[in-house]
Design brief:
mainly alpha; 12 helices
């Protein structure tokens, strides 16, 4: 057994992620809090995994198997806090974290339920990976609380988060099958492989986080109202020069124009075949 278990490297990466979150002034407060809680949770979880499997501290097993119920919800809610749904964030938090709390309480209180624990955790990973992909497919304008300058980075991190949930689901399934068939005889190398894959994936994500090609939207169904709103937005940016503000977001621009985020996003999409971040960046380039 190696002297420093690979899960401890993931603990260090989670600590680094948490530090980065807390020092990013451009992250809105609710999202920063949720992402910081996620980092702390992953730190505790990976530390418990190392204690259980590398140092045979079996007393941590119950807590270590319950914490995964909270990973997917916190990751998804962090992105909800960056979206147009932030106005309804509190009930959304209550729903998703309430479900996680209920599952945790049921499994902790009813030992026979633990037979289905791996299935329940796997379902949680799968559901939240799909929810993240659904949010990502909505386009950059869904993250209306973010300044335009940071949209590309956070959208790529959304894909990374969905990928990490999917990879964790696969590796947890493999470990559960090994316990069922071989009484965990291969769990050591499976855990090391999972940790190594996660480390490699996070390293690649960090290396390429600033690289992305913008995707132009396809204009559809332009109306006179759309054209008028897009022209008003263009004139406003030209007169106010608000586009030079690095913290300009879809929500801020929509409020200055007195319209909803969705109305402005759809008008620019339909008239120019671009999202709001591309619309603002075109002003900056010009």
């Amino acid at each position: 057994m190696i002297s420093v278990p690979l899960p401890l490297f993931l603990t260090g990466l989670a600590a680094l992620f948490g530090a980065m979150v807390l020092t990013r002034a451009w992250l809105p407060g609710p999202a920063k809090t949720l992402f910081a809680l996620l980092a702390a949770l992953i730190m505790v979880e990976t530390l418990l995994v190392a204690l259980r499997f590398a140092y045979q501290v079996d007393s941590v097993m119950v807590i270590q198997r319950l914490l995964p119920f909270w990973i997917g919800p916190l990751l998804y809610l962090g992105y909800v806090a960056l979206s147009e749904r932030v106005a309804r964030l509190q009930p959304v938090i209550l729903i998703h974290l309430g479900i996680a709390a209920a599952l945790t309480a049921v499994v902790a209180a009813l030992p026979p339920v633990r037979v289905a624990l791996d299935l329940m955790i796997g379902a949680s990973y799968a559901v939240y990976a799909l929810l993240l992909l659904r949010l990502w497919r909505g386009g950059p304008d869904r993250l209306s609380q973010l300044a335009v300058a940071h949209l590309g980075f956070m959208r790529r991190m959304m894909l990374v988060g969905a990928g990490l949930l999917g990879l964790t689901l696969l590796m947890d399934t493999a470990i559960a099958v090994d316990f069922a068939r071989n009484e965990g005889a291969n769990v050591g190398w499976l855990l090391s492989l999972a940790s190594l894959l996660l480390i490699v994936m996070l390293t690649i994500a960090a290396a390429f986080s600033l690289r992305a090609a913008p995707v132009r939207a396809t204009p559809t169904g332009q109306s006179d109202a759309d054209a008028a709103l897009a022209e008003r937005a263009e004139q406003f940016l030209r007169d106010s020069r608000l586009f030079v503000d690095p913290q300009l977001s879809l929500t801020r621009l929509a409020r200055r124009l007195g319209v909803t985020d969705r109305a402005l996003s759809e008008a620019i999409n339909r008239t120019g075949g671009k999202n709001v971040s591309q619309f603002i960046n075109d002003f900056r380039v010009a």
